[in-house]
Amino acid sequence: MTSILQNGPLLPWLEQQLAAVYDLVPLHQQPDPAAFLRAEGGRFVGLVSSARFGASRSLIEALPNLKVISSFGVGYDVFDLDAARERAIPIGYTPDVLNDCVADTAFGLLMDSARRFSAADRFVRRGDWLKGQFPMSTQVSGKRLGILGLGRIGRVVARRASGFEMEVRYHNRRPVPDVPYAYEPTLRGLAEWADFLVVISAGGESTRHLVDADVLRALGPQGHLVNVSRGTVVDEQALVKALQDGTIAGAGLDVYEDEPRVPPALFALDNVVLLPHVASATHETRRAMAQLVLSNLAAFFATGRVPVAVPHDA
Ligand code: NAP
Ligand code: 8YV
Fold it and tell me: Which of 77, 194, 195, 234 has a 20 to 30 A CA-CA distance from 165?
């Protein structure tokens, strides 16, 4: 049986499917993972991991016979791509199948931040409706939507916006051909123009703290920020301050800089909606992601190729 190392917990259904076909060993269940890797690292030809747990250089180097990695998730910011490339190890991942649910979540957070549904729910539960009216909120339809990262998911967010008659502009490093949305060459310019700024770029070093205090000032006191990308893209301390002092009106967050730790200062604020990184977490999407993890591995062992792999130049 082919030996596959598992880094971090996965969907139970996926773990069962993997264990039925491979000699699957969960590293996180070993009493001393480092000692286990020293003793047994040579046994594994495959590594299965996720956008949450990734694979560090030291893990990849501890597996001298590793030939393939298969990840549950589309973000690859927690994988050491150089370490994998040096040994020509392909990294399977799960793009596209999660676009709809992540875009839906972005739009849900946008609606919630503007219309204050979560805050209104808390108001009703506290019994405050018996004492008076909930304050008015902000209209979404017909407004301006800025998208940081018009990639696979960003384009679906833009399509959702057309149902709300919103005008869409975006910022990437490069303009995207064949889209009907205006390109803003700077993120600051996009934030200045937008009523809502949705962050759905890639994570990693190249996007670290792109949304900083200056960008939040440009978004302004009527503006709302939504982040479904990675916590690292937003300077979290600057965001907390901007929400506290009214530099921006509100925010909807699915991701944080140090998950699962959320800055406690945010718990006290009524103008921020906090989700625990669940944008892709529906039964349908998670099953489709799991299928891709399996089919990427199966194809590699049958043909030597991973059909859906992180691009070589990523
Ligand atoms: P994608 O198709 O690769 O799109 C990424 C976009 O980010 C591209 O438009 C890219 O444009 C832009 N970008 C990358 N670096 C940039 C930079 N330095 N400055 C400005 N724009 C930059 O990826 P996707 O499939 O849409 O996924 C996007 C990300 O969403 C993933 O990487 C992941 O981190 C996150 N995600 C989160 C969840 C969740 O559960 N919250 C779920 C799925 C995905 P250029 O290359 O032209 O700059
Ligand atoms: C993952 C994600 O489900 O795909 C990504 O990049 O962030 C989520 O869809 C989550 O990180 C678990 O791996």
Answer: 234
User: Do residues 71 and 113 share a domain?
Assistant: no
Domain count, the chain: 2
Based on the domain organization, do 112 and 87 belong to the same domain? no
Q: Of the candidates 197, 175, 176, which has an alpha carbon nearest to the alpha carbon of residue 188? A: 197
Each residue of 256-266: pLDDT tens digit? 999 999 999 99
Does the C-beta of 279 come closer than 6 Å to ligand 1?
yes
Give the percent of the chain with pLDDT over 70: 100
- With a Cβ cut-off of 6 Å, ligand 2 is lined by 50-52, 72-75, 98, 280
CATH number at residue 235: 3.40.50.720
Are residue 215 and residue 73 in the same domain, yes or no? no
Concatenate the DSSP letters of all residues of 40-69 into one string.
Answer: HGGG-SEEEEETTT-B-HHHHHT-TT--EE
